[in-house]
Write a structure and sequence with these properties.
single chain, 474 residues, alpha+beta, Beta-Lactamase, 5-stranded antiparallel beta sheet, 30% strand
Length: 474
């Protein structure tokens, strides 16, 4: 049979054998685990020296009872036993009567139960609970608690801040699920986040559009946290609710202002360039091996400007150039700038375009047609002088303020010379343009002309399309 010593040391209680001289004769391993003393330290001196001085007299009384020869039942009492770290633990004793000078005893660590049963503990617990309730009631954010053990998780607590925020009293909402705050907004993105967190028994924060009792909307930042019992079962959800309406409105206003600012930039710069400027600072330039440039000038502008008021002149230019802007957008090309009565546009950048030459040719023909809808304020017809060239260019943004997207290079200069040396109503192009378009467009040879900085150059007039139906795909 197993030795009784094994049961002695397997017991979860503090087992021991004492003698009438007041020493431990045998102690189980639990004494060391509970009180920190080694077995040698416990047995080398009278065990009464480990007892709290205030409990020694009462302990002596109970020990004398255990020494009565006719004692038939165990003696039970409590005292405080010193831990090796200097603190005391409450022990609940069951002491057998002494037989042949020895007494077996079992002690249990009753520190927690002793503390919990004390008046001091009860007063402390009551004060803590009262403080908790005061904190919940005084909180400036809404606090709610829902019972996850009941169907539909009804609310079982709401604090005054929730009542103030929503206009609902506790009597209005206790026993109901808090989805009543959603009104008819049942498909909000934040709700799906919330449902997933509840299903997975996790924390989450979501911003929801909610409605007060009077129907007015407000933005609610809801943070939920699950509560579990000692067995790990979900019992409740606690919700913290904050009215973030002002913050959401400020964020919405900021986004609108950012959109306005971006739109203003897009009115000045190409979209890809705006994106690049957001990502980097400093000079932004790029070499493009193939692009086509169109310069447009209003014939007789200087004469008209001397005869018209500034407001009338600007309004006339605005109407014409607005029509040109619409045509540029339709043909997928990029307006670069206007200088006085000059209008500059490019195709093939900032995004590459395989049909950039034909795109510019189509635009020039469309401009020549649409200008027929306009006259000078005096009734005179308005004519255009246009020039086109194609080749390599450098494009980019330089400087740190008043950004503008501009082009540089020989191609730009030659396109400008084509416009300057042209004639009213004509679209003058270089041989490079002619060679790429001659199969589908109708040209007339102008002949050799002197181009400033370039000398003699053969040029052509772009008249229209080889067929009657203009091309529309670029």
């Amino acid at each position: 049979m197993p030795s009784l010593d094994r049961f002695f040391h397997l017991s979860p209680d503090l087992c021991c054998v004492r003698d009438t001289a007041g020493y431990f004769q045998q102690v189980s391993d639990r004494w060391t685990a509970t009180l920190g003393w080694s077995i040698a330290e416990l047995t080398e001196r009278p065990w009464i020296e480990f007892i709290h001085p205030d409990d020694v007299a009462d302990t002596d009384v109970h020990e004398q009872d255990a020494q009565q020869p006719d004692r038939q039942t165990p003696v039970t009492y409590k005292n405080r036993f010193r831990h090796r770290d200097g603190s005391y633990r409450w022990l609940a004793w069951r002491v057998d009567s002494y037989q042949e000078g020895l007494s077996a005893a079992i002690a249990q660590d009753a520190t927690e139960s002793q503390w919990r049963g004390s008046q001091q503990y009860r007063r402390g617990l009551s004060a803590t609970l009262k403080l908790r309730d005061q904190a919940l009631a005084a909180s400036s954010v809404g606090i709610v608690m829902a019972d996850a053990r009941l169907p539909d998780m009804p609310l079982i607590y709401v604090n005054p801040a929730f009542e103030t925020m929503t206009g609902y009293s506790a009597s209005d909402v206790l026993g109901t699920n808090c989805r009543f705050l959603q009104g008819d907004k049942k498909q909000q993105p934040g709700l799906e986040v919330l449902r997933q967190a509840i299903q997975r028994q996790r924390n989450c924060t979501a911003i929801l559009l909610n409605f007060r009792k009077d129907g007015t909307p407000f933005w609610n930042e809801l943070t939920i946290s699950p509560i579990f019992d000692e067995a790990g079962r979900l019992t409740h959800f606690v919700g913290i609710q904050v009215d973030v309406t002002l913050r959401v409105q400020a964020e919405q206003s900021l986004r609108q202002e950012q959109q306005k600012s971006e739109q203003l930039l897009l009115n000045v710069l190409p979209k890809p360039i705006v994106t690049q400027l957001k990502e980097r600072q400093g000079t932004l330039a790029q070499q493009f091996p193939a692009a086509t440039i169109l310069f447009v000038d209003l014939v007789d502008f200087t004469t008209q400007a001397s005869q018209l008021s500034a407001l009338v002149l600007v309004e006339t230019l605005n109407q014409i150039f607005s029509a040109f802007d619409r045509l540029a957008a339709e043909h997928g090309v990029e307006k670069i700038k206007t200088i006085g009565d000059a209008y500059m546009v490019v195709a093939g950048l900032p995004l590459p375009q395989s049909s950039h030459v034909s795109a510019i040719a189509d635009l020039a023909l469309a401009m020549r047609k649409v200008i027929q809808d306009f006259t000078w304020p005096g009734g005179e017809a308005i004519q255009l002088r246009m020039g086109i060239h194609t080749g390599a260019v450098v494009a980019g943004v330089i400087g740190i303020n008043k950004f503008s997207y501009d082009l540089w290079g020989d191609t730009v200069n030659i396109a400008a010379r084509m416009e300057q040396s042209g004639e009213p109503g004509q679209i003058q192009v270089t041989p490079a343009v002619y060679q790429q378009l001659r199969d589908n467009y109708h040209f007339e040879m102008r002949g050799q002309i002197n181009i400033k900085g370039k000398g003699e150059m053969m040029t052509y007039w772009l008249q229209g399309y080889q067929s009657e139906s203009p091309k529309t795909n670029h």
